[in-house]
Design goal:
The protein is an alpha+beta fold. The chain contains 26 helices and 28 strands. The longest helix has 35 residues. One of its GO terms (molecular function) is catalytic activity.
Length: 855
Amino acid sequence: MTSTNSELKPQANEFNAVIDKLTEHITNNQDRLDFLDILHQFRHTFDTSKATQAHIAIHHTIPTADVQPTSVCPFYKTPQQREVLNKEVEKLLHDNVIRGSTSPWASPVILKKKPDGTYRFIVDFRRLNAVTKKDAHAQPTTEELLNRLAGHRFFTKLNLKSGYFQIPISEVDKEKTTFVTQDGLYEFNVLAQVLMNAPPTFQRVMNNLIATGRWNYVVVYLDDILIFSDSIKEHKKHVTEVLSILQKARFTVSPSKCVIAFEKVEFLSHIITVAGIEPSPDKIQAILDIPSPKTLTQANRFIGKIGYYQKFIKDFAKIAAPIHKVTNKPGPKKREFYLAEEQQLAFDKFKQILTTPPLFLNFPDKSTPFILSTDTSKVRVGGVLKQVVNGNLKVNYYLSRLLSQTESRCSTTECEALAVMWCLDKLRYYIGDSSVTINTDHKPLVNFHKKLNFGNKRVDSYLLKMQDMLPQIVEIKYKPGKENYDADYMTRQDNQGRDEKEEWPRGTVTWDDEAIATVCTRSKTKQQQQQPLLPTNDTVVLNTPITKNASTKPIPATTTPIDPTHDRIRRTQEGDSNLSAIGPIATSDDGNRYALVLTDNLSKYVIAEVYPGCIAKTAANLSVEKYILVHGAPERLIIDNGAHFSNALMKAIIQTTNIKHAFSASYLPQTNGQVERFNATFSVQLTKYCNKENSDWDIFLQQVVNAYNTGIHATTGFAPYELAFGRKFRSPFDSTSPVVKLPRAADFYKYIQRSRKIIINATCENIRPQQHLSKQRYGTNREDSTYNIGDLVYVKVYSNRHKLGERWLGPFEIIQRCGDQNYIVGEQGTTRTDRCHVSQVRQVVEWHNLALLAD
């Protein structure tokens, strides 16, 4: 491991600087002086100027029974690698870590290159480890150690300097650690990390030396020693005692990795305080930096890293299920891997949770009984351990896991019982001997722990297995699903336990409100009277019952996306947008000949501006001033291939605003279908208001755009304006709307957010059948061809072709593939290229292939 600070080597004058740095955070002068005296007293423990071996009774042994020694020839090393290897051997000899050997054993050396270009020295002990008897000494679990720290205020962490190299090896077993280089044989005098039983030996040494009899103020995990106390006075005593033991045994610690008398400390990748624990920010950032997995190994690595913090994540197993679906395949398919939208959403969901505070768990209060809420589904079991302390709900632990194939075939009662007993077993360290009340949404399990014979063999076996904890269960209560929720805490609000229902003062909503009247008279009202809208067409409708109700009906704060379409709708203003030009049109009285149109793909909201000429500057003006500076930058901008878009100015704007861009295929309006759909509406509606010469079309453009934006869209079922702005458009022709009084600005924000969620939920429900209908209408019996780079194709002719002219030109060569359906083709012998959709190209069948087919 590398230290964040340069390694401090206290010698003479330097030692004062070292201990000053270790105690500079202590604000009380007397306490700081006391700790300075303690560190001065044990200065040899902090002296890392030379390597030392501990004087201890336990030495590492390597039991191999009566096996023949194994030996191999040294691996080939380049001259550069031999130089690195020789320097490493010289350093180890100087520190008395190794010595020369004449052993019949010999293991090879591997030099693993690091990202910075240097090498890591590794001895390949796999052959030796294969014949070594395993040490069964138990390692403490992370949860066991963290739970020991509950409620303590002051922490000191000591990290042993190259801890393994301070543990001596038994003299008779040193020859077994021999490694071979081109220059000879060497054997270890001290413990090497890659030996099979190295961790058990190290933990045994530290337990016997420090932890035994001191479990109430010190924990040890390998080379990390954490001292904890309730008061600063006790802490001085505890630190003195531990340092005295280390100095007597001639252990040395690394000053740069030590912290003295802190109230907040990092231990086992967790941040520890008197109140509770949270993940280490550095580890969280490391997880956030992991890109979307492309292979099975990468997916498993991601699940492993985030799984270490699953106790902080409600419904971890449920969120991870899509990823497990592609990583836990049975039989011959276990090596197959793919990352579909379902898996990507799970991946993104985890990262969202890790960045949503508070990511925090409270330490248990030993004087307060626990509440365990359990739940199960067809694929998982889980629970939440919590306490009510001083009227506030405190969450101690989240846990969940997927059901095995056998468990998933069990009955509901068996699965619910499994959830209870599995959670109790996993939470032993937290619950201890405290009492616990269990909430379940399965009524047959009420107080089933008191029954001698439940009448189900599997449930009876659970009770038998957990009989030691049954006396701690005060009661098993039945709570219906709607009450047995931990969704309030899932939202991770700071005000835990508060009721988040909106307060509506009496008299602020009148019966004249059309929305209230509509709801109360729903059984009698068959039709809703529409307000006039100018200009209008037979598809534009402004006031519908669902949009009225959406503006006032509250929804739960825990509403989540139910499918990928829903999730995309929630990101309406961050989605794709389409930019296209209409024209040239008849020159207007003001000299305008073009209309530039920008459409948001999800909300269908349209922005249009008229211009005399369609040049790069006008396209840039619409994109920046009329859209980005008003509505924000879209994630992706789809534009056509006109010169007014494919130029240096537009490219610079797109790069500056971090927008992904894509060009639609030439002569294929389907690739820019959102804006082309509006163009069709635009032309028909605008014609109704123009004079015979069509010279005033630019006067009516914004009215037509407004009618489109405020009318009900056939796909979403809502007006584009409502989806884009989160509120209903108020026409100047509407009568005065009733007022809803909201006491504070924050309440208005909640009101807007809830209205928007209602609209988005309903929009998602409207879009899905339209997508399905379009798929059936246009996708039946169609399968696009696939081409490779270098293939020869013909390109369809669209312009300047008479009725008897060639419909296909070519051959052209496939130069580049752009996504799944677009290709860059080039004319052979020239530098001319063009972007084509797969439907616009046809593969060239060579003549000799045709001859073979004819034969």
